[in-house]
Design brief:
single chain; alpha+beta; eight-stranded mixed beta sheet; 14 strands; 25% strand; globular
Length: 350
């Protein structure tokens, strides 16, 4: 995986990202352009028209993120709206492309575990899809004044995703398909970046709830002391608190009530993956090690729609990477590919 180190002002961070990952950003934009055309029958210029609404909001409300996206555009030789479009891909046409995955936070006496499989779901099965998208994954290290340093796994050109920071705050992400989006609110990937710039779970929750979120999803937040699942839609928030053993398990459906919003439960296997992960974790005892926690994400019960997913016409997705973090030691291990068929292992440390 490409490792990109970025530091300085928002624009400088973006420019370094764009320059280093130029070919991956080219592929990422091309990939999304094909998906929008195939699934939604809209050409890229129409996608950019939708992105312009979010670009205006970002410039007014989150200028640092706007400057960083401008830097990515300049560094990669793209237009600003190209970069905005991939950062708000979910909100532009909700349901086109979503992150289907299983996430776990677990605080034990010695460890603050946080991990997930990332299984992006394409609404229209493509044989070559998995390989194409996997090539666009990169790791960014972001150092900026007066904010924690960030290490994250992201898609090239996207400013916020899955990872942790030097304050010990970590994020995982699950798509949830509730219809509707509000372009005046914070896009999901901006929210992930905002959480990764936070000093604690409480800080992250306060910031995200004060902004409001543009669409529905779940962000699993953890720090060395606590964990919280933050479910949201375009109009609601709900908290998934740790159980008696200090665990939060989530997948791709709402676990809490959200008045006025209806969950489509777009991945039916999500209903099985949550209890499967909870049961498997319960069997590990009070203080599992790295190997045992990592093995939780290799489970293939109820295949192909299992925790470790296999791509078929039925599932439309496969696990592209797994990440396991210990937020107390500021360490993570990333496995590229299905965790039962690992292609590359990258260790991260802050």
């Amino acid at each position: 995986m490409l490792f990109v180190e970025c530091k300085g002002s928002p624009y400088e961070i973006g420019f370094q990202h764009g320059q280093a990952a130029k070919s991956q950003i080219d592929c990422c934009i091309s990939f999304y352009a094909k998906l929008f055309l195939k699934n939604c029958k809209i050409e890229w210029p129409q996608v950019l028209d939708h992105a312009s609404k979010f670009e205006q909001q970002a410039k007014s409300n989150w200028p640092a993120y706007h400057e960083e996206m401008q830097g990515i555009a300049d560094g990669s030789g793209k237009q600003l709206l190209d970069i905005v479009a991939i950062n708000v891909r979910t909100e532009i046409n909700f349901g086109l492309f979503s992150d289907g995955c299983t996430a776990l936070a677990w605080h034990t006496e010695k460890r603050a575990w946080l991990g997930q499989n990332w299984d992006p779901k394409n609404a229209d099965y493509l044989r070559q899809w998995m390989t194409e998208q996997k090539q666009n994954l990169i790791i960014t290290k972001i150092t900026q004044p007066r904010k924690p340093t960030i290490l994250q796994v992201t898609e090239a050109g996207i400013i916020g995703k899955i990872g942790f920071n030097s304050a010990g705050v970590g994020t995982c992400f699950n798509a949830i398909r509730v219809h509707g989006a509000d372009p005046a609110r914070l896009p999901a990937h901006f929210g992930l970046r905002m959480a990764l710039e936070s000093s604690s779970v409480l800080d992250a929750v306060n910031q995200l709830e004060s902004c409001g979120m543009a669409s529905s999803a779940h962000i699993l937040l953890a720090d060395p002391a606590t964990a919280l699942g933050l479910e949201f839609t375009k109009s609601t928030f709900a908290h998934c608190e740790p159980d008696a053993e200090g665990r939060v398990v989530h997948a791709n459906h709402l676990l809490k009530e959200h008045p006025g919003e209806v969950d489509t439960v777009w991945l039916k296997d999500s209903l099985q993956r949550v209890p499967t992960m909870a049961r498997n974790a319960e069997m590990l005892g009070d203080e599992p090690g790295w190997e045992a926690v990592s093995a939780l994400f290799e489970d293939e019960q109820n295949a192909p729609g299992s925790i470790c997913r296999t791509q078929t016409k039925e599932t439309g997705s496969a696990t592209l990477f797994n990440i396991v973090m210990d937020l107390r030691s500021r360490r993570a291990v990333v496995r590229l590919g299905r965790p039962t068929e690992t292609e590359e292992v990258v260790e991260l440390q802050l």
